[in-house]
Amino acid sequence: MPVIKNCRVSWASVQKPNTQFEACWEVQVHLNKEQADALQAEAKALHPKGIKLKQEGDDYTFRFRRKVEKADGSPNQNL
Q1: What is the C-alpha separation between 21 and 2, in angstroms, rounded?
Q2: Which DSSP category does 57 fall into?
Q3: What's the gap between Cα 11 and its chain centre?
Q4: Which candidate, 48, 54, 46, 49, places its Cα nearest to that of 29?
Q5: Strands 24-31 and 59-67: what pairing?
Q6: In this structure, what DSSP letter does residue 41 have?
């Protein structure tokens, strides 16, 4: 079941990785309070600290990122 749906997306680098600093695929999503709480609950199920959400007024922002290469230099596999 998807945790996030019907949200605004910006700075999506999904067809070609963002190579400004370190090559990575990323999507920045803007969430309302209910969506942010649902995402935080799912994250806390995986890690006690959860995730860091940036709050701007009533809007919460989170950036999903995946590096192009692993630490050993081999390419990350697409899921």
Answers
A1: 30
A2: T
A3: 11
A4: 54
A5: antiparallel
A6: H
Rg (CA), the chain: 14
The Cα–Cα gap between 34 and 37 comes to: 5
CA distances from 61 to 21, 57, 67 (A): 20, 11, 19
pLDDT, residue 60, reads 92
* 32-78 pLDDT, tens digit each: 998 888 888 888 988 888 888 899 888 999 888 888 888 887 888 76
Token pair recorded at residue 47: 């890690």
Q: What is the dihedral of CA 14, 26, 63, 46, to 10 degrees?
A: 100
| DSSP class of 58 | T
Which tokens is 77 given?
A: 């596999």
